[in-house]
Amino acid sequence: MQLLVPTNWDPDLILPLSKLEAGVQLYGVLPTSMIGSGARGPDDVRMVENQAEEYIEQAHSAGLKFDYILNAPSMSNMEWDENTHQELLMHLDWISNIGADSVTVTIPYLIELIKRQFPNLKIRVSTIAHVNSVARAKLIESLGADSITLDINVNRDFTLLKAIRNAVSCELTILMNNLCLYQCPYEYYHHDGQGHASQSYNPLGGYYVDYCVLRCTLDRLCDTSQIIKCRWVRPEDIHVYEEIGMDMFKISGRSMPSERIVHAATAYSSRHYEGNLYDILNIITPKTGFINSALPGVQNNGNGSLPKFYIDNQALEGFMDFFRKQNCPSGCGQCNYCQRVADKVIQFDRDEVDGCIAMLNASLDNLSSSKIFKVKAGAKKHLR
Q1: b/e string for 118-139 if b means 16 or more Cβ within 10 A?
Q2: Euclidean distance between CA atoms 307 and 228, whole angstroms
Q3: Angle of CA points 214, 354, 152, to nearest 5°
Q4: Closest to 298 measured CA to CA, from 207, 205, 366
Q5: Complete DSSP assignment for 244-281
Q6: Between 34 and which of 91, 129, 314, 364 could a Cys-Cys bridge form, CB atoms 3.0 to 4.6 Å apart?
Q7: Per residue in 54-93, pLDDT tens?
């Protein structure tokens, strides 16, 4: 089994990951880049280019390959400006020269550009490209993709997965531990916002309000079936995907602490996990600092974090069998399977969750009413 594991650029990740039973490749990106990335990284990383080069050398010395992430869904058309296009080429040249083994991209044009001008780099296509059909997979492969990380929404559509596997010869990857909503309506907006915020030429200097995470967190807290509907994969169910012919299994979570990354990678490498499934999922939550600063007088839940759920992984044995025959895109409206499972396997503190729901509702009200901008304007006026 091959695992694609995130790095937060902590050198202490390299040794434990290199000792796992599964083959491991690392992936990561500096906090800002020419192209940007479509997901949040660690907040406290201050890496510069020469340090990244040293890190990749350390990974190679431990037998780990490195994938550099360039998967923002848009460059705001900057790729077509002559000056920024030259910067783009210089950035790709740097990635090639520091020894990156592959790059992950979303923009189709970059597949062709990199394939032609930087043929030593293997090209992975991000899950953000939403490859969710045979037709799209074939077209993306025809552009030059060596590997495709499939749209996470198709993770439990086994008929489609088999059809895609039979239609293309490139490597196929499954994203395993994301807690994004199934068929998330905020997904495109979220990746686009994250991409622009992480681009070095961003006119706002990376400032970004994560409305999408506020909203999807609220949706999961109000409806626990959403947690089950999320297309995560249990370590015990990896064999289902191997039997179909999936090649690579990706763990998400570049912003996770090192201990959690190693914990998740160890669980998936061993194909077995006893305990709280929630502890190996990539849970992107709102920053309580933003919520509190935006809402004078509103407090978070005592411990400074969002409520924690307990998902009994052992109680999910056989859970995946239902999806072998269910058509979720068309049948979700008449089915309550995920709610029944949620009632069985999820435990949480009701008062704690209700308090957080109130906090998130107040925060979203502050955004939709534009109060956040009035508060900031008032603060600036006061400072004068």
Answers
A1: beebbbbbbbbbbbbeeebbee
A2: 17
A3: 40
A4: 366
A5: HT--EEEPP-TTS-HHHHHHHHHHHHHT---SBGGGGS
A6: 91
A7: 999 999 999 999 999 999 999 999 999 999 999 999 999 9
